[in-house]
Amino acid sequence: FYAMQLPAALLNSLQGLKGFDKESFEEVHSSGQQITSIRLNPFKKADFQNQKSEIPWTEHGYYLETRPSFTFDPLFHAGCYYVQEASSMFLEQAFRKTTDLSKQLRVLDLCAAPGGKSTHIQSLISKDSLLVSNEVIRSRAAVLKDNIVKWGSPNVVVTNNDPKDFARLQNYFDVIVVDAPCSGSGLFRRDPAAITEWSENNVQLCSQRQQRILADIWPALKNDGILIYSTCSYSRQEDEEIVSWLKTEFSVAAITLPVDPGLGITISDGGCRFWPDKVKGEGFFIACFQKKEGDDYVALKIKGKAEPITNKERTIINNWVKSDGLSFVKHAETVYAWPEILYNDFNLLLGQLRVIYSGVLTGVLMRDKLVPDHALAMSDIFSASVGKIELAYEDAIKYLQRKELRLDTQFRGWHLAAFQGHPLGWINILPNRINNYYPKELRILKEL
Ligand code: SAM
């Protein structure tokens, strides 16, 4: 083990902060300890074998004893779990303690890539609720979309917008999560290389940007709506000072989350601080507010962009999808499944934002047939009559590498390729070979 050189300016700036203990803070950074944690997908219910213990503040989160190779675990690619830092899963408490999750909600995750918090939120809200998962950087938005597809729930719209674009949706959201871009000191233990990028100047720039983002998004939250703000920075300029700035700038009620004293979480000016020498997790800060101004949402005029499918197309789709509660729209020949109950919301968003994904991409219509999309395989909306072929471990890896499969089977045509019952994607079984439809850009490049 080596002594990790934390920036002196950072250590000095943390003096006097609640819960900061310089000696043990430095010690835990030099300990070499790494924590691995995952969150299971409650919609997929995998039989996850690894040695694990519960993360106390989240229902489906677990610490793993050792770090396995996620790349070579088919269940990882099937979307059965997400690898996520443990402290940040405290978002669940922010939801549970501020919001009635049995209600139909409109939730915005504003800074969402790569999707840890968005997939978590999807597991918390009801099926009738809407999640708008947004990321401003285009390449990161594409990764976000892939992770949303893998998680498999249809009640989400992925957007690629600047925070200020949301001003068009006045009073629309019940909950807005701002997991802000920050100076990142909270992740130094996990990623020591990031230390060289840290500077006091950058902390200042991040703090200003955080204020800008919050001011931009404020109109989109309805009166009495909940704002959840978080960072993975230790700096008070990005944490407590943002809390007090919000309180002076806007009409809000700050909400102090009740915290079990045994957990090692520090309450500091109403926010929750996670110090890595006090909790089993990395550095994290989270605070909640209730908006005390603005109005209820008044329905905006829908520009009506979605094109419904025809009855004939519906008959084709019914062979693939259990269509209860779903509406189908198409864009050229591409068909998307939308939750019926969210049809107006999805349509509205399509007219107001840069939507890059919505619902479940079902497939492409070609000459009276549907070519199913990978997203349909990852979802829970495919019909029970769709055939499923169970693959052994080595074949599952081959499939995920997009290699040629040889299976001894009488079946023909389109099937789901599955591992332990969980679909990995599509295959088409022809008389003389099997076509592998795993998406090229997702395939495993390494050899086992
Ligand atoms: N919530 C994500 C998760 O749990 O997986 C992590 C989000 S990360 C802390 C912050 C995100 O904000 C990054 O994806 C970054 O690209 C994005 N971002 C950067 N600048 C931004 C800006 N000016 N407005 C909004 N988001 C921004």
Mean pLDDT: 96
Largest sheet, in brief, is: 10 strands, mixed
Distance between the termini: 30 Å
Query: From the helix content, strand content and strand pairing, which structural class follows?
Result: alpha+beta
Overall strand count: 23
What are the bound molecules?
A: S-adenosylmethionine
Main features:
single chain; 448 residues; ten-stranded mixed β-sheet; 25% helix; binds S-adenosylmethionine
What does this structure look like?
By secondary structure, the protein is of the alpha+beta class. The protein contains twelve helices and 23 strands. It has helices at 8-14, 22-30, 74-77, 91-98, 116-124, 138-151, 200-217, 240-249, 311-318, 343-352, 374-378, 393-400, and strands spanning 36-40, 52-54, 61-64, 81-83, 106-109, 130-134, 156-159, 173-179, 221-231, 252-255, 266-268, 271-274, 284-291, 307-308, 326-331, 334-339, 355-358, 360-366, 369-372, 388-390, 413-419, 422-429, 434-436. The strands form four sheets. Strands 5, 6, 7, 8, 9, 10, 11, 12, 13 and 17 form a ten-stranded mixed beta sheet that branches. A five-stranded antiparallel beta sheet has the order 14-15-16-18-19. Helix 5 links the parallel strand 5 (106-109) and strand 6 (130-134). The longest helix is centred in the middle third of the chain and has 18 residues, at 200-217. The relative contact order is 0.13. The mean pLDDT is 96. S-adenosylmethionine is lined by residues 111-117, 135-137, 140, 163, 179, 181, 209, 213.
Question: What does the secondary structure layout of this molecule look like, with pairings?
Answer:
Elements: H1 8-14, H2 22-30, E1 36-40, E2 52-54, E3 61-64, H3 74-77, E4 81-83, H4 91-98, E5 106-109, H5 116-124, E6 130-134, H6 138-151, E7 156-159, E8 173-179, H7 200-217, E9 221-231, H8 240-249, E10 252-255, E11 266-268, E12 271-274, E13 284-291, E14 307-308, H9 311-318, E15 326-331, E16 334-339, H10 343-352, E17 355-358, E18 360-366, E19 369-372, H11 374-378, E20 388-390, H12 393-400, E21 413-419, E22 422-429, E23 434-436
Parallel strand pairs: 5-6, 5-8, 6-7, 8-9, 20-21
Antiparallel strand pairs: 1-3, 1-4, 2-3, 7-17, 9-13, 10-13, 11-12, 12-13, 14-15, 15-16, 16-18, 18-19, 21-22, 22-23
Helix pairs in contact: 4-5
The protein binds S-adenosylmethionine.
S-adenosylmethionine (SAM) binds next to helix 5 and helix 7.
